[in-house]
Amino acid sequence: MANESRPCPCDIGDRFDYGGRGQEVQVGHIKAYVCKPSASTDKAVIVIHDIFGWQLPNTRYIADMLTTNGYIAICPDFFVGQEAWKPSNDWASFNDWVKTRDAGKTDKEVDVVLKYLKDQCGVKKIGVIGFCWGGAAVQHLMLKNPHLKTGVSLYGVISRFEDKHSLLHPTFFIFGEKDDIIPLEQVTLLEQKLKQNCKVDYEVKIYPGQTHGFVHRKREDINPQDKPYIEEGRKDMINWLNKYL
């Protein structure tokens, strides 16, 4: 069950019992999970995992959800073979661990994935979503990568890029009201900075009563009052992608 008494980055929530409908492939120097819809499409979404890595069933569940909505979904190993965080690890070592996995240094891997999607899958329009660590990576990519059409940052750690707000592409930011990792004052400041500096479409949305990781780390049946917000977050994510892809 959820470990809500000791909230830590992405430690709140459940590991889904889910196998995945896609397959693992080698994409350049990295491995990736890929799932494709039954009908052909020229639209794809890159899914950036949280600290628990590209093999987390929860992340593959969301990737498959994107596929049922008509997108090719690909979740690469952005840790490039380095070990993902484990719930049993000592949280006192977390800051040292995460320093070796910089969400602002995902460009090389994204370029390889973009080439694969265009050359091997015939994709023309590409978006990106990410959770926590991956949400911070989305913000980074929306600031600099010209080849991505849009992004959805789900509870991305704002402090990683708090001084940069000139987004190149429409970006949707999802936050939980009760997120112990991302205080609401940080979210308010993000909104203010975007309003001052951002020239493209964006939205910042806070979901009442929700903790960190709620869209992909909470089971729908864990708490009746959470279910509508979990479903709303997923629906909002899909609607944003549909609008800009």
UniProtKB/TrEMBL annotation:
Cellular component terms (Gene Ontology): cytosol
Annotated PANTHER family: CARBOXYMETHYLENEBUTENOLIDASE HOMOLOG (PTHR46812:SF3)
GO MF annotation list: hydrolase activity
Residue ranges of every copy of the Dienelactone hydrolase domain listed in the record: 30-245
Domain of life assignment: Eukaryota
Cytoplasm keyword on record: yes
Protein name: Carboxymethylenebutenolidase homolog
Family: Belongs to the dienelactone hydrolase family.
Xref: InterPro entries: AB_hydrolase_fold, CMBL, Dienelactn_hydro
Keyword Iron-sulfur: no
Organism: Acrocephalus arundinaceus (Great reed-warbler)
Keywords of this entry: Cytoplasm
